[in-house]
Specification:
Number of helices: 1
Distance between the termini: 51 Å
Number of domains: 1
Order of helices and strands: HEEEEEEEEE
Shape: globular
């Protein structure tokens, strides 16, 4: 009886404390025709490193979800950036298949939503991360563009190391690169087709 009670209590606590992304049948979503900046790759490589670490834009536990349990929203599409310099302002711009850019506080027609705009929105509490996700439904088919741009260096020392994490369907991808002030080194653009 005591074991049954302990198992029921554990199940109740686990279901109330953990996010369970992707319940139900996962959508068949895949990237193709991927275009990356010269010298940069977008890799589908996952090495389980244990529990999910927050605010690093990495799928640490290899379950196909980036930074779950960390207060970030996720969906069948998710794009997150994290960077190492607290003083720097790095911006994530995601353009959907209809040509709309996800903005903080409002969803695009296709359902992309930007829930973090650090450090601008004042709710980042020193965590340098931005996050865009598909709020629900199936993603629109077509060409998507993801631009990561150094807006202001602030008091940081260049280059600023940035990690991009991308979730498409049940797979996660990642890229790490440096950004510095200047026309040709202050942004990286990635494109793909769904």
């Amino acid at each position: 009886m005591q074991r049954l009670f302990a198992a029921a209590l554990f199940a109740l606590l686990a279901s109330s404390c953990l996010e369970v992304p992707g319940t139900g049948k996962p959508a068949e979503v895949a990237m193709r025709d991927v275009s990356t900046p010269v010298g940069t790759t977008l890799e589908q490589a996952c090495t389980p490193s244990g529990v999910e670490m927050c605010f690093d834009a990495v799928d640490n536990n290899c379950n196909g979800v980036i930074d779950e349990g960390c207060g970030l929203h996720t969906g069948i599409l998710q794009f997150a950036i994290a960077w190492d310099a607290a003083e720097a302002d790095v911006n994530l711009e995601v353009t959907d298949a209809a040509g709309e850019v996800a903005q903080p506080g409002e969803a695009t027609t296709s359902g992309l939503y930007k829930d973090r705009d650090c450090p601008r929105d004042g709710q980042c509490f020193g965590q340098n991360i931005e996050n865009v996700f598909l709020a629900g439904g199936e993603p629109e088919k077509g060409r998507y563009k993801v631009v990561v741009k150094l807006e202001k260096l602030g008091g940081a020392t260049a280059p600023v190391k940035v990690r991009l994490g991308v979730r498409v369907g049940q797979r996660s991808y990642g890229s790490t690169f440096d950004l510095s002030p200047g026309d040709k080194v202050n942004e990286k653009a990635f494109e793909f087709t769904l």
